Amino acid sequence: MIEHQVRTYRSAEDFPYEEHLAYKIARVAADPVEVPADTEEMIINRIIDNASVSAASVLRRPVTVARRQAEAHPVTKGGAAVFGIPGRFSAEWAALANGTAVRELDFHDTFLAAEYSHPGDNIPAILAAAQHKGSNGHDLIRGIATGYEIQVDLVRGICLHEHKIDHVAHLGPSVAAGIGTLLKLDVDTIYQAIGQALHTTTATRQSRKGQISSWKAFAPAFAGKMGIEAVDRAMRGEGAPAPIWEGEDGVIAWLLSGPDHTYTVPLPAEGEEKRAILDTFTKEHSAEYQSQAPIDLARRMREEIKDFNDIESIVLHTSHHTHYVIGTGSNDPQKFDPDASRETLDHSIMYIFAVALEDGEWHHERSYSPERAHRPETIELWHKISTVEDPEWTRRYHSTDPKEKAFGARAVITMKDGSVIEDEIAVADAHPYGARPFAREQYIKKFRTLAEGVVSEKEQDRFLEACENLANLNDLNELNITLEEDVLAKAPETPEGLL
């Protein structure tokens, strides 16, 4: 890996475009290096993982709305598939629909470093572009490997959330780079597409603050859609604002740490394999990633508690991220509101820990139901939980050593009689260094579980066979899943839109 120093340059300074971060990323995307076997295997796992959560979310209202938006844009030439339905649709709208289905339940893969991310958000847009252009499985694998690589590298080097910029600002460029690899575009075209994609996908973090709405699911899908449109314009010869990161009025100078700050962004050297996907991890539970380990901790600790009414308080000692984003450090009263949206509850570690402690499980629907959130005993326990930042957990969160890097917490449960129950967990059970790491078997099990009652067994089998033969797949439409009409009929009615 080469560590690139990225800072602001005045317009009058000599700064050749070959030195721009967007150009260096484009060089990585255009590198014809092949994908190693372990990266390819994980890409297949994540395609299966995305299909799992799409099956679980396909009948939810935001996903239904996005699907109906895509249905309004059918095509007779090219086009891409939309999860759940037959037909061909405009690639960018298919990417929006499929990306919303993937993100709706907050249940797919994650990478956490200086910034947060869900790198699996790259897949719907890159796959839609591949289907539209008639690409094969080999090219799709290369494109997805690039998408993951660029997003992970940006997340390692540039923190967005401290400036209240949403993390999808790293997704637009990674999608554009991934599509560039997929289509074997030249460096200059990819460079322009990356700049346009960043420019059009930079937004504030209010989408993940306060009363969180369904836009949380649409935001990364929209970034994928913008990535496709950016590539399309660049291929037609249109340019981007430049230098997009380093310009005097660019992203670093005005949206991030300012003109005096230098970021360090690692990128693969020429000929170096793209392996970043191997540093990412998926979710066993449908909740924000920082909740994964605490859910497993709660399931373990509940065995030591005879009566939950005897609990005086619960304090979760954890990282800066957990405390300030999903903990009491956020100062969001909505995180204690039983009438809050599902999107808000899955960003409340207090709610999540209370329910996991009481139930000994986590379910993507039951655990968020209004009936579950309104249980009086749950509300009472929920309000006894608080978080505090522990510098050691924050240090481990930012560690560059994957074996030390941790996303866990220490729970201190104080009983009314003064006794204390204490335990801690560093990583979730499903994490690569956890008690039960996910491998192909677990990804397939997750898919089978979430697809049950939604996707026919025959269709499940067909899809999994196509995934496992991805490198030799010539028709990428086989990666789409269609549902029976009686299943789709259960989707909610939604008002007519403009388009």
TrEMBL record:
Classification via Pfam families: MmgE_PrpD_C, MmgE_PrpD_N
SUPFAM superfamilies in the record: 2-methylcitrate dehydratase PrpD
GO molecular function: 2-methylcitrate dehydratase activity; aconitate hydratase activity
InterPro entries, sorted: 2-Methylcitrate_Dehydratase (IPR053420), MmgE/PrpD_sf (IPR036148), MmgE/PrpD_sf_1 (IPR042183), MmgE/PrpD_sf_2 (IPR042188), MmgE_PrpD (IPR005656), MmgE_PrpD_C (IPR045337), MmgE_PrpD_N (IPR045336)
EC number: 4.2.1.3, 4.2.1.79
Pathway(s) served: Carbohydrate metabolism; tricarboxylic acid cycle; isocitrate from oxaloacetate: step 1/2; Organic acid metabolism; propanoate degradation
Top-rank taxon: Bacteria
Keywords: Lyase, Tricarboxylic acid cycle
Signal sequence annotation: none
Top EC group: lyase
MmgE/PrpD N-terminal domain location: 20-262
The keyword Nucleus is annotated on this UniProt entry: no
Catalytic activity: (2S,3S)-2-methylcitrate = 2-methyl-cis-aconitate + H2O; citrate = D-threo-isocitrate
Domain MmgE/PrpD C-terminal as annotated: residue spans: 285-470
Gene3D superfamilies in alphabetical order: 2-methylcitrate dehydratase PrpD
Gene Ontology annotations of biological process type: propionate metabolic process; tricarboxylic acid cycle
Subunit note: Monomer.
Similarity remark: Belongs to the PrpD family.
Full protein name: Aconitate hydratase
